[in-house]
Amino acid sequence: MKATAIPSKKCKICLITPAPSYSRKGNRVTALRWARILRELGYRVAIEQEYQGQRCDLMVALHARRSHASIARFRGEHPNLPLILALTGTDLYGDIHTDASAQESLELADRFILLQPAGVDELPQSMHDKARIIYQSVKPPPGEFSPKQDAFEV
C-alpha cells in the first residue's frame, strides 16, 4: 500500500458508487451505510457516482468495472493517496475474470474490501495480500424478541 498511515479523523473520503443517488439497489445502499458509519467515526465523506477531481484524502470505490474510470483518474492524479476497492459479487464472480478494465482496477487499488472470505479465492494469488474481509452486520432491533409459536419469522 502506498500510504500506510491510518487516515486522520479530519480526512475527507471520496466514496464512489456507480449507482445513482435515487437508486435503492445494493451498491447505493452499501455506500449510504458505509458513509453513515464513517461519519459516525468522525470522517468527512462525500458519496459520488464518479470521481471528477474533487479534493479528498482517500478513495473508496465500489465495483471494479463500473467505477474503473474514477479509479484510473484518482490513481493518475494522486499516485500516493490510498485507493480502496470494494469488490462486489459482480466483480468477484464475473468481471475480474473477463473484463480488462476490472482487472486494471485490481492493479490500481492498494486494498480490496470483500464481504465474505470465499471471495479471496476469486482473486489472483498475487493479490491475496491486498484483500481485507469486513463482515457486515445489523444492529438488533430494540426491545425483547419473542418468536411467534405459529409462524416462522425472519
Distance between the termini: 41 Å
List the domain count as a whole number. 1
Described by strand count, sense and barrel closure, the largest sheet is: 6 strands, parallel
Q: How do the strands of the widest beta sheet line up side by side?
A: 2-1-3-4-5-6
Q: What is the mean predicted local confidence, pLDDT?
A: 88
Level-2 CATH architecture: 3-Layer(aba) Sandwich
Strand pairing plus helix content: what structural class? alpha/beta
Count of DSSP H/I helices: 4
CATH class placement: Alpha Beta
CATH superfamily: Response regulator
- Rg result: 17 Å
CATH third-level topology: Rossmann fold
Characterize the overall form.
globular
- Helix proportion: 25-40%
- Beta-strand level of the residues, as a percent range? 15-25%
Order of helices and strands: EHEEHEHHEE
Q: Care to count the β-strands?
A: 6
Poorly predicted tracts of residues: none
